[in-house]
From TrEMBL:
InterPro entries: Viral_Tail_Comp_sf
Superkingdom of the organism of origin: Bacteria
Name used for this protein in its record: Phage tail protein
């Protein structure tokens, strides 16, 4: 399995294990809030003769209604605990250590009802 897919699957499964409604693409308007969208992991760098040397970035989007701000903050805290501890994926022998983490809180007005939107970005060195 490619390491970017393995990391995507890891975060997708962790979100579900935490009890979050989790999607790969944005769901339709009937989906209940809050939910998490796990975005595609992107890879840069790669392997050399003596090993692997690269970065892999994955973004998570958390969406909730304006009155779910506390619930979204709790979700963010739980997902930070998943991402900031380092990751070992046995099926790919990937050991990833977080190199950079950023979170941005946004007010999403693209829908008829404004939403809280948290974008979380984890960059790992491997």
């Amino acid at each position: 399995m490619h390491i970017s897919l393995a990391l995507f699957n890891y975060f997708f499964a962790k979100c579900q294990d935490l009890g979050f409604d989790t999607y790969e693409v944005l769901p339709d308007d009937t989906a209940p809030y809050p939910f998490v969208r796990v975005n595609q992991a992107t890879l840069s760098g790669g392997s050399t003769k003596t090993g692997f040397d690269g970065e892999i970035t994955i973004n998570l989007d958390l969406f909730g209604t304006l009155d779910q701000k506390l619930e979204l903050a709790e979700m963010q805290q739980k997902l930070e605990a998943v991402g900031l501890t380092g990751i070992w994926l046995s099926d790919t022998s990937l050991v990833a250590v977080v190199d950079d983490y950023q979170a941005v809180n946004l007010l999403d007005t693209s829908t008829t009802t404004p939403l809280n939107h948290i974008n979380m970005s984890f960059k790992f060195k491997y």
